[in-house]
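Here we describe the complex-level prediction in full. Unlike the single-chain runs in Section 2.1, the two entities below were treated as one system.
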Amino acid sequence: MIRHSAAELAAALEAGETTSVALTRACLDRIAEVDGSVHAFLHVDAEGALAQAEASDARRAAGETRGPLDGIPVAVKDVLATEGLPTTCGSRILEGWVPPYDATVVTRLREAGLPILGKTNMDEFAMGSSTEHSAYGPTRNPWDLDRIPGGSGGGSAAAVAAFEAPLAVGTDTGGSIRQPGAVTGTVGVKPTYGGVSRYGLVALANSLDQAGPVTRTVLDSALLHEVIGGHDPRDSTSIDQPLPALVEAARAGASGDLTGLRVGVVTELGGEGYQPGVLARFTEALDLLVEAGAEVVEVSCPTFVHALATYYLILPAEASSNLAKFDAMRYGLRTWPEGVESPSAEEVMRATRDAGFGDEVKRRIILGTYALSSGYYDAYYGQAQKVRTLISRDFAAAFEKADVLVSPTAPTTAFRLGEKLDDPIAMYLNDLATIPANLAGVPGISVPSGLADEDGLPAGFQVLAPALADDRLYRVGAALETLLAKKWGGPLLDRAHALAEEAAR
Amino acid sequence: MTETLLSFEESLERFDPAMGLEVHVELNTNSKMFCGCPTEFGAEPNTQVCPTCLGLPGAMPVVNRTGVESAIRIGLALNCRIAEWCRFARKNYFYPDMPKNFQTSQYDEPIAFEGFMDVDVDGETFRVEIERAHMEEDTGKSLHVGGATGRIHGADHSLVDYNRAGIPLIEIVTKPILGAREKAPQIAKAYVAQLRELIVALGVSDARMDQGSIRADVNLSLSPKGDGGLGTRTETKNVNSLRSVERAVRYEMQRHAAILAGGGSILQETRHWHEDTGITTSGREKSDAEDYRYFPEPDLVPVAPSREWVEELRGTLPENPTVKRARLQAEWGYSDLEMRDTVGAGALALVEQTIAAGASPQAARKWWLSELARRANDTETDIAALGVGPADVAAVQALVDAGTINDKLARQVFEGLYAGEGSPEEIVAARGLAIVSDDGALGAAVDSAIAANPDVADKIRDGKVAAAGALIGAVMKEMRGQADAGRVRELILEKLTPAG
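The structure predicted for the assembly as a whole is:
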């Protein structure tokens, strides 16, 4: 049962073949079975999830089901505030903090009747591409437990890939949904900036962050996206427009017909620095799109080569200010400075921030503080904002020539735990292809494209669409998924054996 | 602790003052600037808070439209230009009463800029140029417990109340005020007084200086006389009464002058104003290098007031204060001096409201400028914060007009009002202040006064009517001032003169 997609499970619930309680219990059992190895979860709320499942079953019995996903369990990245459930953002500084309120995304999950299984692991404050920067230990990739599950949302991706949850919510600031999707063989969507409320999402970089679905199928992402998306008056940057018809687009795309679609291959997002096996799967997928009737054009976005540098000025600048609130005065960790008789508030702040933040967080706070300092602002933060505008213009020009843009999601497959931990630049480079979309606010999806020949690990195919045209992601993603499944004779995840071997050991 | 001061006159002989005034106006919106929390003053600590104004992880701000509206109206009333597009910015610094450790404010894109206000001092008009008026949020309030001074030094621990965090503020900043010379202290006071009046007329704030809903910071520097440059400034914080604005300017002028005349140099710093002793003391050193790392607030979209909206708001502005003063002076029949005193006492709006409540212009002026201004001065309280309002004053005057009390008794009614003994009517009743005009009671008192003063009575019988004053005085004394003096005179003359 746990291997079914959310759409299939919804049909089974509808047909009375199973119950939400049975489904939720199955997920909890699976978590108990494999999460010791995977460590996708930081907190599991068995009691709460089962209570919500019971309520869902009662609604169904009374004919008051709230929507297609009522009763389907979901996992939530630990960066989203959940009333009554710990929310740590993978940081020591928030250890034990239980928010008194729900993020809007969480409110919408609850209102739509999805039992919340628990909170998933992540790089501390979403800073990282491997989930190794979690203060609570790394998450492991279900395909190979010695490898990273991507990051920062490695927990959500691994939970879905390991069949611990049919659905999860992630957040994507520079690729934190899409890159984990690519390296775990799952689907991840970063919606248009402003398409999903950020209220209750503990900000990494406010102008880049966006929550989105993490699932095993494109249709499941569309279903979940429709639950969590749409205008929220509590988020001023939320777009006051109805979402496009996403589920409809996914269903239409599943026919495998892309006649008339113009697909732009971005010159700057490929080639050097990309693993051959990743590029091979990308090219094959592209050929399938052509077979489905799409026209491929090559587009150049010259400013994309500056995207990484731009990103690593804007993100730390915003983050350095966002993280200032963690000062031991109101919530979270409070550390007394050693050897100080009667410390001042400032001394307690300093000691707490020293003890509570990990190295990567400190690194980015220092970078951001520097970038915003007077005398440097124009050269760094100011300049980065200008380049950001140019990147948006490159996107606009590219979308004149193509309906969607495509690239490999990440330049490599999952690397080994610890491999890049001491080399932040190498770690940052993993987000090369995903970052431009965040800078421009456009939506993107990562769909599994197959396994790289050299290591047998999953690679991802990224589709980007213009702002507000999230439906195109689902149409193209679903078409590719259908064509690839036909070629493979089943979903890619059927070929993940690590967990089975682990269980057998 | 006492600093050497040069006399005010001598400081002017040697130096020119330059002033800058920063006034924070706390708006009276029903909810905070970026969340829906109530803004009521004096609630139990930390009861008017939510995830947003507590800066809880994940919470986000939403701009209060009424706050923006008030900012635009203040800007327009100060003859400012209104930005077509502006943003909020984060001012980053750590302080325990600031929940996010940044203040959401505005930096280089204020909502209103380049305005002016014409200030009247001694019948002359002085133009104060306004640099900007911008929107921001207030911080929480720290209470330092265990120290002698209530300041953080020496305190045993501190408590923080976040009720005030997020309350909308408008900060109004003047350009450097030059050429004010000996009138600098008066201009500073008159500017704040007139600004306060304007805020009252706009109805955008409670405008209570004593409760901190208007707070003034006084920047002051001196330069050698005739030099034309700007010296090093100090910033005296939270000068919270009109009177203190004047005193703080005067004090800092004299203090700077003494230091500079002695060959010293001014340390750029914030100064604390001490209301009780009338001096400033050193606060924290503040250099221009203090780096707030301002950047545009990414959680808020730009504020772009449409020109239609701005013009609509312009239509809601109260009358221009200068024009209004001229009109009121004509309507009330005040002399220039009477008008100037009224404005100078910060009582114009109070007098206007008192007249609106039924008192005559002269009566309203009389009470505010004699009784209440004196009281404000004696108790070092803002005249608007005495606990006696225009309605009370009008009610007292109505009692005088009705003959229930006279002016002398009215002063006792005011004593009762200061003491919170109830409404003027209640005080008259409780204190037994009503004038007696009943012939029975008065007649008896008159008879005993005649009996006690036979020689005076004889004089009156002889036609020396002017001597009646002595008998009236005796009657008033016996009746503790509560006799109707006119009727007493009539009774005396009835009893002692043949024709009756």
